[in-house]
Amino acid sequence: MITETESLKNLNHAFSINGQLEFITGKGGMTLARITNNACTAEIYLHGGHITSYIPKGDKEVLWLAPNGAFKPNHPIRGGIPICWPWFGPHPEGKSTLMHGFARIEIWTVLSTREINDHTTEICLCLRDSERTNAIWPHKFELFLRITAGKTLFIDLTSRNTGNTPISITEALHTYFSIGDASRIRISGLDKCDYIDKADGDKAKTQIGDVAISSETVRIYVNTKADCIIDDPVIDRKVAVAKKNSDTTVVWNPWIEKSKIMPDLSDGDYQTMVCVETAKTNNDIAVIAPGKEHTMSTEISIIRQ
Ligand code: TA6
Fold first, then answer.
1. CA dihedral for 142, 143, 148, 154, sign (positive or negative)
2. Which end of the chain is more exposed for a tag (fewer CB within 10 A), N or C?
3. Which CATH number is correct for 4-303, 1.10.10.10, 2.70.98.10, 2.60.40.420, 1.20.1740.10?
């Protein structure tokens, strides 16, 4: 098993795939895996196991990444697909000040890489408990991230309980999508779905029709296994977000005022990003018995007209 602290040479010797996958030095001097195949390019930082780019061949960037975001230790990358684990949002018992857990600020290790075919490449990363994580969350675990980049972007996040007591987790693949204009997109798939409106005093509401964005939007849609589609008339593109083993979808856009105060966001950033997050949170909790595991998945694809 190789970690980011190993040289790039060791990483590439062990895991590069000729013509499809190489490890390079990216922003902030951090190591990333760059995938290039006949269907797409993708970039994954070992910091946070963080996918920062997915560009299907012949299309534009699907993921949004903060133009002025920081790439530094102990700090989450703003944009791409942050891994919120082992809790979503604030710590459930207030025992840590970390928002969204620690997985997105830990350095993941490379387990394997594989050329599935000339248009599909897989990379598997792993995060295991350490003194650092035990100090924050006193449980033994293995967290596996399987990323399959090709005509679609498929992500499996598997939590394994390697301790001897049950663990309860909430989690999210907190995907930031690149869009043309937040006020003009529509998100379908959540019609008649109940949600908690975190931007309106945590009121319980029900979605009527497609989701439109016209102010700060922080909505936790509950009891939904539905796929969502982001319809973007500006980029003239529809992006599908499918999921497995997730009963919660979070839709977030900070809008004007929040953008001004959130780290790594510039004032106008809210206009070109929206988060549609495959999640387990609120009452949707994964309880994992010793020795058992739980996998949540998402699949991102462009709907070809
Ligand atoms: O997913 C929505 C949310 O919980 C928002 O409330 C906002 O905090 C966002 O996540 C980003 O959180 P972060 O800790 O990455 O700034």
1. positive
2. C
3. 2.70.98.10
